[in-house]
Amino acid sequence: MKKIALLPQGSVSHEALLHLIGEDEPVELHHFKHISDVFLQVANGLVDYSVIPIENTIEGSVSLHLDWLVHEVDVPMQVEWLYPSIQNLIGRKSELVSETNKSVEGQTEAISYDTVKKVLSHPVAVAQCMQFIRSHMPQAEIEHVGSTAESVEIVKRHPGEGLAGIGTALAAKIHGLDVLAKEITDHNNNYTKFVLIGAKPFVSSKINIQTKTSMLVTLPEDFAGALHQVLSALAWRRLNLSRIESRPTKKRLGSYYFYMDVLASIDSVLLQSAIEEIQALNCQVRILGSYPTCGYNH
Questions:
Q1: Cα distances (Å, whole numbers) of residue 94 to 98, 144, 159, 168, 213
Q2: Beta bridge pairs of residue 152
Q3: Are 20 and 172 in contact (CB under 8 A)?
Q4: Average pLDDT, the chain
Q5: Gap between the Cα atoms of 62 and 72, Å rounded
Q6: Contact 261, 243 (CB under 8 A)
Q7: Which of 42, 209, 242, 258 has the largest CB neighbor count within 10 A?
Q8: Quick check: helix, strand or coil at residue 174?
């Protein structure tokens, strides 16, 4: 049975993994509060894989997680997939039905958000839902917590205190709470890209055929126009880049490496020859993984 480390129960990472593998897949899940522990579990061989959120359509790259992949652990990416970061308002419906809004028997009770005193969630989730909060709960205080899953757990532990959390439908189900409002994010194209890192390839029926190779390229400091030469080595071979991003090497000020996603397998003759040309320019190349990718299918 595969052992997989990930963020807490009910997090978007948890929902995303269940989407990838299916709820009936026999796996052993290990949940951790901090992403550092998720990384270290697989790096130390305590689990087979770890689930890492790496990029978001609204917020962009998760720089902390990229830095962990580059500087802290040496574990290859084995699969990449997209999952929508659907945030919901979660709490107890019975606490939000005021006396004046209680309906007669057989009719739907109208929810009043006036009794919400505090909204809790991760800072990123709160930022993604500000239009809903301002429109429906302008009186509510906002409190940031470590994760969306933690916010729902806090709401569960403090009944009758006017708390509501922003999190996943899975978190509401796990903690026995109600989804008070569905899909409250300001943008409906809020997707997160996840990678599964581990020592062995990961097999799933939901994985598409397309393969991507992620690599780091560090340029020589005394070579003017080196980045142009690197990109040319890929371009004339018609190798498509889906992503390029500069990040500090943390060795000295002004020293950067370039993170690149190439839409080709590392086994491709064209990519192999491009890497050889790049290395001939005295650039350092490190492969972070060559892996299948999959989009999001409902």
A1: 9, 24, 10, 19, 50
A2: none
A3: no
A4: 88
A5: 15
A6: yes
A7: 42
A8: helix
